[in-house]
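Methods — Computational structure assignment.
A single polypeptide chain was analysed. Its primary sequence is given first, followed by the predicted tertiary structure written as structure tokens.
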Amino acid sequence: MQILQKNGSKEARNEEPCQRRERLPLSGMATRAFVMIPKRGNVMSLTMLGIPPSWPIFADGVDWDDARDAIESAELGDGLPLIPPTPGRIGAMLAGVPNPSGPMGLVAPMMGILTPAAAAYCCVIAGARPEELPVVLTALSACLEPEFNLLGIQTTTGTAAVAVIIHGPIRARLGVNGGGNCLGPGNRANAGIGRAFNLALKGIGGALPGIGDMATMGQPGKYVFCLAEGEASDAYPALHVRRGLTADTDAVTVLAVGGTMEVLPEGEQDSAESLLVPLVAAMVWGRYAAQSSQGGPQPEQFLLLPPEVARQLSRSGHDVRGFQAAAFALARDASPWDLLSHAGERWSVPSPALASVPEHIHPVVTGGVGIKMTVLPGWAGGSRSVTRAIMTSF
């Protein structure tokens, strides 16, 4: 097996020593990202600026099983099969990037340096495509905002994972699924983007199980938790539009979630109340099950509404603002309180307010046919979601 980069010293090519930098075919990428460094005798190694020297890079034709073993040994994998990172694949991923080694911030918990090249490496091994790199990089950069609290999310003993929601025309260009089974398998863009993002959090951030990542149980969302927002309407504008961006802006939202909770309408399912009451009850249950009401800031609330449910709410006079106000008031007035009883007695807990203000309750229209809704319980440790326009240069 030929490893072109490994700890800055692995034997790579049987060539004569050189006293100058040799350019490699890089599929249009700036050649300064790769440097041939002379070593003792005829041993040379390939160093990629912006990628940690301990991350292995392989020659073309490497045995995939051998490559996977080496990547896993470097603690960069997730247990699933991996694509061998070669100079050609990394070069294609970084085509057109003017500064692959440019630092973009520090990724908790071990404060690894986020660079386009490091993110590209993770995209390659995850099976993502070059056009998906800007989404992954923007999502990673958004996680570095202080209010997101990435250090807490990455090191908690809880089940926190980071969900990635993609907005704008880029959804269609990349083929990201915001329809049926949007949280399930079968879509390459969702899988590639979501997996690359999580591999980068683990690899760049150093969130290794039992070392940086101290989760008691963890959750499947740490493999992939990526979806597209569905089609917007006048009653339910897209989330990034509600946050001040234009509808034609490509954007991404990152949020800390503790899992998913399926919610069904109650009764005859023909009124707004039949939808609101179980949704609010689920959000209240989620808060108290995670004890996130015990001090600290009021959380945000995220819930996924299938288009059919959004239309039904709209017909009943509940647009997004009306929905937020109604859900906030329902929790404040303790209408679902009776559902939060144990042995016939109320729990000794504070008021079940869902958020500090109604605008922090975020319905996101997505998914396929049907009326089954999904609540995304927030992480109890405290995090604020971040929405950013997808970067076009970095």
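Note: The CA atoms of residues 29 and 96 lie 6 Å apart.
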